[in-house]
């Protein structure tokens, strides 16, 4: 395997069997169940999960080849963790993220604080679970999720007004029996529709006092399921905790 590394100092070459990294995809193909990317607006490339994906022609960064990063933190700079639900276009979902292995020719562009790689041979090893993606999202303080988490954990009465948060992708974590209130016409980010990401093992109530439909995306800790529930305007929905996911956790 030929590896070329480019940075601001020099070019380096080395030989290895493979490089393992992370790739964020644009979605999951309904017919095959495999992840896909859209390198161009009218182009959809569906990846194989059973065999090594191969690309013809010379690999070029941002032009030709299979792109990936060495870790989640770098990957999120090139593609977001969040996508748009096909069923509910105003709701957010987690994009599929895979651990991958690159073989063959590899070009690495290194620049602080991120890295981007392209290869002509890429194998999908395993899908990263939703919980790990959320934890990475919170640990790097994307949007305001970390602030929301601390509020929920410290709030004495477990009542949170989501209009005080500065983002439209929120994650409710670790706090049972809380009440999430959405008031007014929009949150401070300027969006009219919010998506609350919640573990299926958490119970809570959503009170939608706004003029717009809001959404709750219930994710399993270890499975890949995402179940979106619309919260119609001027309505209240109670979500019960499912203490066991499909793996018995």
Tell me what you see in this structure.
The chain is mainly β. The chain has three helices and 20 strands. The protein has helices spanning 72-75, 130-139, 145-154, and strands spanning 2-6, 11-15, 19-24, 27-28, 35-40, 43-46, 53-54, 66-68, 82-84, 92-94, 97-111, 114-127, 159-161, 169-172, 178-182, 195-199, 204-208, 214-219, 226-231, 235-239. The strands form five sheets. Strands 1, 2, 3, 7, 8, 11 and 12 form a seven-stranded mixed sheet that branches. A hairpin with a 2-residue loop joins β5 and β6 (43-46). The two termini are 40 Å apart.
Features:
20 strands, mainly beta, 249 residues
TL;DR of this structure?
This protein has 249 residues and is mostly beta strands. It has helices at 72-75, 130-139, 145-154; strands at 2-6, 11-15, 19-24, 27-28, 35-40, 43-46, 53-54, 66-68, 82-84, 92-94, 97-111, 114-127, 159-161, 169-172, 178-182, 195-199, 204-208, 214-219, 226-231, 235-239.
Measured distance between first and last alpha carbons: 40 Å
Summing up helix and strand content along with how strands pair, one would put the structural category as mainly beta
Tally of separate helices: 3
Low-confidence stretches: 5-15, 142-147, 149-157, 186-190
Q: Give the averaged pLDDT, no decimals.
A: 77
Q: What does the overall shape look like?
A: elongated
The H-and-E topology, N to C, reads as EEEEEEEEHEEEEHHEEEEEEEE
Please report the total strand number as a whole number: 20
Helix content: under 10%
Number of domains: 2
| Beta content | 35-45%
Radius of gyration, taken over Cα atoms and rounded to an integer in Å? 20 Å
């Amino acid at each position: 395997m030929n590896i070329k590394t480019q940075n601001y100092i020099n070019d380096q070459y080395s030989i290895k069997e493979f490089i393992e990294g992370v790739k964020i995809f644009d979605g999951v193909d309904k017919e095959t169940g495999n992840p896909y990317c859209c390198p161009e607006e009218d182009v959809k490339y569906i990846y194989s999960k059973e065999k090594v994906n191969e690309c013809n022609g010379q690999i070029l960064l941002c032009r030709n080849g299979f792109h990936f990063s060495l870790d989640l933190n770098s990957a999120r700079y090139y593609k977001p963790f969040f996508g748009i639900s096909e069923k509910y276009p105003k709701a957010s979902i987690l994009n599929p993220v895979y651990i991958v292995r690159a073989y063959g020719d590899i070009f690495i562009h290194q620049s602080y604080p991120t890295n981007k790689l392209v290869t002509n041979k890429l194998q999908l090893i395993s899908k990263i679970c939703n919980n790990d993606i959320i934890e990475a999202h919170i640990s790097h303080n994307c949007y305001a999720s970390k602030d929301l988490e601390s509020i929920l954990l410290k709030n004495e009465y477990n009542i949170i007004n989501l209009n005080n948060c500065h983002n439209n992708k929120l994650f409710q974590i670790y706090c049972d029996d809380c009440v999430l209130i959405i008031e007014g016409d929009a949150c401070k980010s300027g969006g009219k529709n919010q998506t609350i990401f919640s573990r299926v093992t958490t119970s809570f109530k959503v009170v939608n006092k706004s003029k717009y439909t809001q959404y709750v995306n219930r994710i399993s800790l270890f499975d890949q399921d995402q179940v979106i529930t619309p919260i119609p305007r001027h309505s209240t929905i109670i979500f019960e905790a499912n203490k066991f996911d499909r793996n018995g956790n």
